[in-house]
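Reposting from the mailing list since nobody answered there.

I have sequence plus structure tokens for a pair of proteins and want to know whether others read the tokens the same way I do. The first protein:
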Amino acid sequence: MTQKKKQIIACSALTFLILVADQAIKISVKTGMHIHQSIRVTDWFYLLFTENKGMAFGMELFDKLFLTSFRIVAVGVLTWYIAKQIKSGVQWGYLICLIMILAGAAGNIFDCLFYGMIFNNPPAPLVAELVPWGTGYGEFMLGRVVDMFYFPLIEWNWPSWLPIWGGEHFIFFSPIFNFADANISCGVIALILFYNKRFRQ
């Protein structure tokens, strides 16, 4: 078996595994916890079920339909780029970073495309259930992304005498994210740290 075929098989398998793990976690949380329910694992790690319409880590910067369309285009471009890199005989490490980003983005796209079609949206303390296709809480491409990992590593109150944020409660690290987000972030960080030169090229 040639090196290119090995890389194609490995990339396909890794993408599949990340997607399956991401969706398994999301569906378990969505059908096992009610919205905004929190489960304490440690003082600095919680499972906190939230949903968002926007980008990674709960940010909401653009229109939902535009964002979903942009994600699909980005995944298409990245898939083309990965295929091109395999043909050029790219390093395994560089390829794995790209696959993590691709699979993570695809995992969140799946939520956006289908979750509104296949899940209902009951109020707490009820949990969501799978429903017949097209009878869910939203339309195609307008589903919400499921997030659950919350790491409030450090918390403090700002001194009241500060002109900005005085007396306010501060949490580091406050974003809530999912397995797909983690793969995207780790892939990007690894590219910057270990493949900076090639990434710039």
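The second protein, same order (residues first, tokens after):
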Amino acid sequence: MKKYIAYGLFIAGLFTCFSMSANAAIFDKAMKGNIQAIRIPAGTTMKLELLDNVSSRTCDMGDEFSAMLKEDKIVDGKIALPAGSVLRGTINKIVPSKRLSRSAIVYFNFEHVVTPTGKQIPITAGLYEYGELTLDGGVYSGGNYGYAIQQNWQQTKNLVGKTIDWGKGTGENMQYVCVPIGAIGGTIGGAFYYVGSDIVDLFKKGNEVNLPQGKNIQILLTQPLDIPLH
């Protein structure tokens, strides 16, 4: 009798194991069907258009901003994220402008993208190939005192060039006299301008960062982005 009971329990156990395995397979298949997604790989760039004004003068750390995707992101021939999708984030940090012509710096934190189905998917990305970026990804405008000196030198060269062009434009008979006069005058005037501007920039605050609504920016995904299909 005990022998039959043992056989019965063994068969019941096998049946239970087979049932659990089958249910697990069905559940796993259902779950996979429910979480199908298209993966946008890390290293992908996205062109965006700002939907809000961002300024170092008026914004504070923690302020929210939004941007709109300007073109479809296609993966394996499928549209993973259509143009018009919205990305949202916050201002991570603002460094105010300082003396010595040091520009303000604004740091962006991109937090999530809103999918066509309305889901908010976390995103890890940073600004990419923007005109003026610090080594740690902040946006600045005009650099520092070294940059200001370079700009002053360029303006000085332009001033001398214009005075020489003035001499050349006085005609064949006069240009031999006017060109040297223009060059000398431009050099003297340029020297005063250069030195004076450099002194002013020592005490001048740097530029503010202003990114108006409609400004085009580009970001780079630093982590893959999985977009659910359902």
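Reply #1 (J.P.):
I read it the same way you do. Residues 1-34 have pLDDT under 50 and may be disordered.
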